[in-house]
Specification:
This protein has 221 residues and is mainly alpha-helical. The chain has two domains: 63 residues, Arc Repressor Mutant, subunit A; 146 residues, Four Helix Bundle (Hemerythrin (Met), subunit A). It is built from nine helices and three strands. A three-stranded antiparallel sheet has the order 1-3-2. A hairpin with a 3-residue loop joins strand 2 and strand 3. The radius of gyration is 18 Å and the shape is elongated. The C terminus is likely disordered.
């Protein structure tokens, strides 16, 4: 377990995903296990586990007897994923405003307040992990296990892209302000506002990721 609460495999998967999204591992590249083990100074066992995790996100493809290859994800596919994520998360937020019990509401408020210090300290790694837990709490607060499973599964696919958003300047601050609207709506039981605030939040996450892509394209040009 690493200092931020992630397993070694989760940390490695995140590092490889970041390298893919940054263009260091381009589409079509074969991800050799030994190369990754040497680059990230780990054994091949966590590399294999990390590649299996990344295959679930769609960032890489596991080909029988050939290994793992970086996949080219089109803007249209990514947009479809973000649209689906926005609708599911917004529904979770709406139901949380209606269904969360008092203990869950206090915990959500405490989570959000704790994240303020991470923003002030610019503790990006800590915020990324806390952000994931924040959203998971809202999925659970909807009190709909089927919807929660859908949300968790889709978030797993989008996790590398959602994490990349924080490379945008001041994104930590903006993310926390967006969370503020969501939290206030849930705590006040305003289901309509909770839905709208969460939908807006996920849309802005996608916008931030697109800024990263546009900047990389300009740099490559």
């Amino acid at each position: 377990m690493t200092a931020d609460g992630r397993t070694r495999t989760e940390k490695l998967a995140a590092e490889v995903a970041d390298e893919i999204l940054a263009g260091g591992f381009p589409p079509g590249m074969r991800l050799d296990e030994q190369m990754l083990a040497e680059r990230f100074m780990v054994s091949r066992t966590p590399v294999r586990e990390a590649l299996r995790q990344l295959a679930a996100t769609g960032l890489i493809e596991m080909r029988p007897r050939r290994g793992a290859f970086v996949v080219s994800i089109t803007a249209d596919v990514l947009n479809e994923l973000f649209v689906a994520m926005g609708e599911i998360e917004a529904t979770c937020a709406r139901l949380s405003a209606l269904s969360m019990n008092p203990i869950e509401r206090r915990r959500l408020k405490a989570q959000h307040e704790a994240m303020a210090k991470m923003v002030n300290d610019n503790a990006q790694d800590d915020y990324v992990e806390a952000n994931r837990n924040f959203h998971l709490a809202i999925y659970a607060g909807a009190h709909n296990p089927t919807l929660q499973d859908f949300a968790v599964s889709l978030r797993r696919r989008l996790d590398p892209f959602r994490r990349a958003q924080f490379r945008v300047p001041d994104r930590l601050i903006q993310s926390h302000l967006e969370h503020e609207r969501v939290v206030n709506a849930i705590l006040s039981g305003d289901s309509v506002l909770a839905h709208a605030a969460m939908l807006d939040h996920v849309n802005l996450v996608e916008d931030a990721f697109e800024q990263i892509n546009a900047g990389q394209a300009r740099a490559a040009g």
